[in-house]
Each structure stands twice: as structure tokens, then as C-alpha cells.
Amino acid sequence: RNPEDDIRDGYVAIDFGTSSTVVAFKEQGRDQLLRIGLADFSLPPQPKHYENPTVLEFLDFARLLADWQGHAYRPMVSWDSVHCSHEARASLRDNDTNPKVVGSVMERLKQWALRGSQHAVVSITDQDNGLEYRLAPLTERDPVKGKPLAVGADYPFDPIELYAWFLGMTINWRSRGLFLHYFMTFPVKYSNEVKRKILSSFRRGLQRSLPDTLLASPRFAEFSLEERASEPAAFAASALQAYGIE
């Protein structure tokens, strides 16, 4: 099927929070929120489901890295290698006295991004093999607009990029459609340097959730992610209207 037929003319809004992330889009004229990484998506939706934990849990890091670096677009990353969001937080909550589990879970990705290079060294030990992996500090590696990403054995691993890919894989699937335009909000006091780093990570991750058959299309160059507002401004834009305040 031609992926151009599945492109939706709409926007996705992402609030990448310190402890949770909210994703919204329009479907048939209605605002919709997404649930990310639930263990059972047949559960009736609850408000807390849409506060998606900003958490990753690493089970088999070597396998994850091989899959992640093996293919740029829609890599065959297995859920048996890494969990995200609700299931990752549930695993930590249910095993918070088990050092094997605690050492494999990365919480507060946003706070990690705020650290300077001398303080940003974080080690993750996966559950299955006890492999310790030291994360490099977050850097700005913005993709070139309209040019496909290339990956390989030397492609740096970025947990924020991986988290953004999980969001993208939940957003972009054929029965819902493919989205090319995204907005993000940030806290007021975030520096431009930090925001640029996070935006570049999300651009790579979200772009990698698109099918590689779209790369040959001129519409691939339409992909965009930009900062739209601060978090208080975004809240005010919604709340003032909801409460009828001019």
C-alpha cells in the first residue's frame, strides 16, 4: 500500500513531562489522547492511562542495541528487550526492592537531559544478562530535513530518541494514519540549548517510526517537529477557553 495514502493532515501535540508524557491529536474532528505502553490495551480507558510515565526498562540491552542500530526506520525492536511507559513503571513499582530490576529502569529522562556533560553519566544494567551500559551525555544531532537517517554500529544510543520512537510507533499505524507534523511544549525555565537537544532527539525518534517506503516520496520532506509554547502558555490556551474566560 502506498504510504502517502495514509498521511493525515493534522498535528500531534506532545508534552514531554518530567515524570509523565501526554500525547494528543485530532481524529474525526475530536481531540484524542493516547495510552502508551500499557500491559493490556483492552482495559477500559482511565484518566491515569493518559499520563504516560516517562520511563524505560532494559531487559536485553545487547539485543536492543543490535536491532536499534540495524535498521533506521521501524527497526525490529522487541518488547522482550525493552519496555516503556506504563509497563516499565509497573515493573519498578512492583519490584522496588529488587536491585536487578531497579538497576535496569531509567526514570526521569527529562532530568537526565538537563544535566551537564560532567554530571550526565548514567549506567544501566539490563535484567537478562547483567550487561552494564554507560550512557553518553545528551547531544544535539538534528536530522537534515528531507534526508533519511542512517544508522550503524557507531550510531549513538539516545534513550530519549528511543522513547520518542515508542510514542511514534503508537501514533503512526495504518488504521489510524501517518502524521508528519508535531508540536512540543517545554517548561518556562528550560534553556534553548537543552530544548534543542530534546527536540533533535524527538525528531530522530518520531521520524524513525515512519515506514521506510515513505522516504522516496516528496512528502517525506514535510516532516516537522517544533516547539509551540511553554507549558503554562499551553495550559492557559486550553483552560481559559474551557472556563469561558476571555
Quote the average pLDDT. 91
Separation of termini? 47 Å
Reported for the largest beta sheet, the result is: 6 strands, mixed
Q: Give the helix/strand class.
A: alpha+beta
Report strand %. Answer: 15-25%
Pattern of helices and strands: EEEEEHEHHEHEEHEHEH
Radius of gyration: 18 Å
Q: Which of globular, elongated, flat, extended, rod-shaped describes the shape?
A: globular
Q: What's the total number of strands?
A: 11
Helix content: 25-40%
- Low-confidence stretches are none
Total of DSSP H or I helical runs spanning 4+ residues: 7
Distinctive features:
globular, alpha+beta
Structure description:
Helix 5 packs across helix 6. Strands 1, 2, 3, 4, 10 and 11 form a six-stranded mixed beta sheet that branches. The protein has a three-stranded antiparallel beta sheet with strand order 6-5-7, sandwiched between helices. It has a two-stranded antiparallel sheet with strand order 8-9. The chain has seven helices and eleven strands. The chain is α+β, with helices and mostly antiparallel strands and 246 residues long. 29% of the residues lie in helices and 24% in strands.
